[in-house]
Amino acid sequence: MPLPVPSSPLASVNSVLAEDEWLPRARAHAERVARFAEPFVARRNARKKHPIEDFLFTYYTHKPGQLGRWHPGARIALVGDAARERLGWKHYRALTEAERGAAGLPAGDAPEASAAVVLDLPAYAGEREETIRFCGVILRGTAERPANFGCFGLHEWAMAYRSEKFGIRHEYLPLRLGAAGTDHVVEEHRIRCTHFDAFRFYSPDAVPLNELQPTRAAQRDLEQPGCLHANMDLYKWAYKLGPAVPGELLMDCFELAWRVRTTDMQASPYDLSDWGFEPIAIETPAGKSAYVEAQRGLAAEAAVLRGRLTTALATLEAVLA
């Protein structure tokens, strides 16, 4: 049930979805999430680990139950008896009588009236202003910088550098080249990671080997679109923008992050053959070539999603202006 074009870009409702339009989308979202979340929950209950498939649920703070909640995005109202539940969800509100009238919906007290809800944008944006503004800085700044495709995923190797002295993060995984071989790869390459959330896990002896010394404060100046971790983090920015991001976009970012994590670990120093993953041997010319090819493909996907997130973000920024 489309509404007339709003007279103001800050109109609280731009379109309305009937129950037979939005419920299938919500169900499809739940099924999409379950394919990833249910095996994770089963492993967690059995106290088992997976080096790739657990990461998005353990490193990031968004829980499987939160991920499973579908949202239509900003300024899209949901109508129908099933929408009534969302009046108990944080940041949702009922449509006003004026909004119902503009949408051609019966008055709220009419016998035939159904529930009609929408995201309360001013309340949500006001509560999350600092996060919204930081997301804008990161998303736009990253998009504007040139991509670096010469890092070869060596951040994971730097985390395992001198493991006989410091240990390794994934203690249940063997090193593909052993401790000495891993150290040799680190020492024979330039290490130029730009991403603070990778750099902060470096082995202490690897820290001075990095050409840059990323900090949290410098993150807004260093993020670049070739970085696997920056592209994986699109999922983080998507869920931090909350219900203003449509569920379909959130899961597109999640699934990209899943593929990024897979590539990241295949290029790592760990031996994942027991888990069914072939290595990307970045210590060889062929491995470097394969890594860059994968990195470029993931960066191209990320650029599209970054643009879609920036569009969703602009709606929130307009409310704060």
What's a concise summary of this model?
This is 3-methyladenine DNA glycosylase. With 321 residues, the protein is mostly helical. Helix content is 50%, strand content 4%.
Q: How would you describe this protein?
A:
The chain is mainly α and 321 residues long. It folds into two domains: 15-119, no CATH class; 129-320, no CATH class. The protein has helices spanning 19-46, 55-58, 64-67, 97-102, 121-127, 129-144, 154-159, 163-166, 178-187, 196-199, 219-222, 228-232, 234-240, 247-266, 285-320, and strands at 15-17, 76-79, 92-94, 116-119. It has a four-stranded mixed β-sheet. It comes from Sinomonas puerhi. This is 3-methyladenine DNA glycosylase.
Topology:
Layout: E1 15-17, H1 19-46, H2 55-58, H3 64-67, E2 76-79, E3 92-94, H4 97-102, E4 116-119, H5 121-127, H6 129-144, H7 154-159, H8 163-166, H9 178-187, H10 196-199, H11 219-222, H12 228-232, H13 234-240, H14 247-266, H15 285-320
Parallel strand pairs: 1-2
Antiparallel strand pairs: 2-4, 3-4
Helix pairs in contact: 5-15, 6-15, 13-14, 14-15
Main pleated-sheet profile: 4 strands, mixed
Give the structural class.
Answer: mainly alpha
> How would you name the oligomeric state of the polypeptide chains in this document?
single chain
Helical amount:
40-55%
Which strands sit side by side, in order, in the main sheet?
Answer: 1-2-4-3
Low-confidence stretches: 1-10
Shape: elongated
Question: Which percent band covers the strand fraction?
Answer: under 5%
Distance between the termini: 29 Å
The average pLDDT value, as a whole number, equals 93
Number of domains: 2
